[in-house]
Every structure is written in structure tokens, then in C-alpha cells.
Amino acid sequence: MAATRNKNTKENYVLEQRGLHLARDYDLYANAPNGPAYTTGLPEFGFNPSTMGRDNFAYNSIDIETALFGINSTNLVDPQRPVVPERKTLPEIKYFDRLPKLIMPMPLVIENNQRVHF
Between 99 and 80, where is the model more confident? Predict the structure, then answer.
């Protein structure tokens, strides 16, 4: 019986590859809103970053994550070597100027003769 579908034709293969290529380009578009920053750094004061990629913190981030998840930890034939992290030093970015000194309120004074109904 002959095949009646276009699954194994050259044209269908070209269309599938084109779709996969477009999806990959869409996912890996470097200038997208969720893409990498121009200059990666940590804030000097205020808030901590909520989402930063693992490759911003270490050169061997995949090896560190593999060790943390315990992948290949029970391999008795070729045991995994201990992972030594190769950290990246991120610069501190200053978003706003801090006040030069700490401002404290006036001391709290509670007077005993100022209470209501007593």
C-alpha cells in the first residue's frame, strides 16, 4: 500500500526545518526584552536581582548545577571529580545616591500626665 501522507517528502522536511530554525531564532534572540543585559552587575544598595542567569555568576555554572543536583554522583565506574567553582566577579552598579549620614528621629518622650481618662 502506498503512503498517502506528505510526512516523508522533501518539501515537508524543508518546512519542518524552517519552522524549527524560526523557533530557535525566536528563543535565542539576543535583543529581546528578556535577553541578556548590556552590562551585568549587582546593585550597590537597595534590592537584590530576582532573575539572573546562572552563567552570570560562574564560568563553570553547568558543572556546579550538575553537582548540586547529584547527577553522576552514584557512578562507580568513572566517579565524578569534585567541582571547584570558577566565580565571576560582578561589578556593583549605583542606581541612586545615598544620603551621607543616617537620619534619626527625635527621642521619644512619654509624659505621664497626658493620658486620656486617667
Answer: 80
The one-letter amino acid at 67:
A
Side chain identity, residue 20: L
CA distances from 13 to 5, 16, 27, 92, 110 (A): 13, 5, 21, 49, 83
Select from 106, 110, 69, 66 the least CA-distant residue to 85. Answer: 66
Cα–Cα distance for residue pair 68/70, rounded to 1 Å: 5
pLDDT tens figures, 23-69? 999 888 877 777 777 788 888 877 777 778 888 899 999 999 999 99
CA distance 94 to 43: 6
- Contact 87/42 with Cβ under 8 angstroms? no
